[in-house]
Amino acid sequence: MDAYRTVRHPLALLRDGTGLTHGAYAQLVAETHAALGFGNMAARREKVARWESGKVIPEAKAQLAMAHVHGVPRSEVLRLGWPDWLYAATGHSELLTAPWTWDTALQALDRTGKATSRSVDRGYQALSCEEGIADLAASWLDAVAATPRWQPAEGHQRIDGSTVDLLEQRQLQLHALVATLGSLAVRPLADAEQRTISDLVRSASCDRATSARLLALAADATSFAGLRAFELGDNMRAQAAYLASLRAAAAAGDPQLGAYGMTLLARQKIDLHDVVGTHALIDAAERLCAHSRPSPRLSAHFAITRALTSALQGDREAVERHIDAARTLHSASPHDDDPSCVDWVTPESILIQAGNAYVYLGDRTKAMEYLLPLFGSTPATLTNPAITQRDIEFGNTHIALAYAASGEMDMAIEWARKIPPALNKSQSYPVKIYFQRVLTKLNEHRRTPVVREFLKEQKLAQKV
Which of 35, 111, 190, 225 counts the highest number of beta carbons within 10 A? Predict the structure, then answer.
């Protein structure tokens, strides 16, 4: 089974962001503790490790010293408590703790639209505490059940359902463009569309039904923009977008869009091999949709996401069960009630993810049963219109990883050679992550001539 990260405490992620070791971080906190007039504090690396384990809560003055290091006001430390105040350092505090109202949904959309794009190389500041994930899921379900009170806009621009029809068509066109142009080209368009729709939600005058449709579209546009951000390595922006989408969907009373946003939080963690809390996120999504008309694609999306999580946890029986469920659910018809956000969930995408799940389990034979019929026995140009360039990149990396894990170095290198040229064009952050895992696995066989030569090529390429 492929190794994966277990739970990461938010303090561990903040410390990673500083680039400091446990010992160096302990020294920084101790110096800050003294500078703030709190007296001397032992600077031991073991102390920081215990805090990050979640088993020990720092003393109040130590927390204030850490808050000073990360620029979090004392009032937030006292208001939120440990470890929730740590999220304030990521910019997600309000998204996680603010009341679930119409107005806070609009504020979340505005903040997401105005956030500066950036790439995060150290850590990803994602939800990492089991308790925090459970609180998010519970508060979200309560908010949807309560249906936040509508606050009509008082703008001078009047719109009706026909305007929302046009905006929905534009959003569908962006979905289609990603398959042909990729996230790098589409991200500026996605961000601009998210800002446009969010501005209309706040400023345009319309009736309640039109306003709810517009807010639901804003939720869709925000999660779509978040996906583009994650594809290009802007992890904090992606998670902020997913959380804003949850709030917008709850205010709009759209359970399917909200459930999709919840699964995006889970899938971000899966791609980063941090699976703690992912089942809780999917549980919440399924509970919300339990009382609405089922969507075959969305239900299949839940099931295949569970399969990937179970694979990273080494639960083969659960993987098989969830893959079968995903294929069965997707085959249900009609698909008239499927939301557009899951239009990418096709039979082919389910098979690709099923193959990936078996790669994580370390079962090369079973993985190839799913992947090779789609991608061919050797790396080649694909003609299946249902398989996108992103699918090809993921297929190449996972097939290469499967061969490398099983010790078939010639085949691993054959597939791995296809990855760098495509990656140079797409700049896909998830593909980059998986390619690094391929290289790590190949490095275990670096004495094999063909592997040694390939690794040498990659080192030279990085220097260019």
Answer: 225
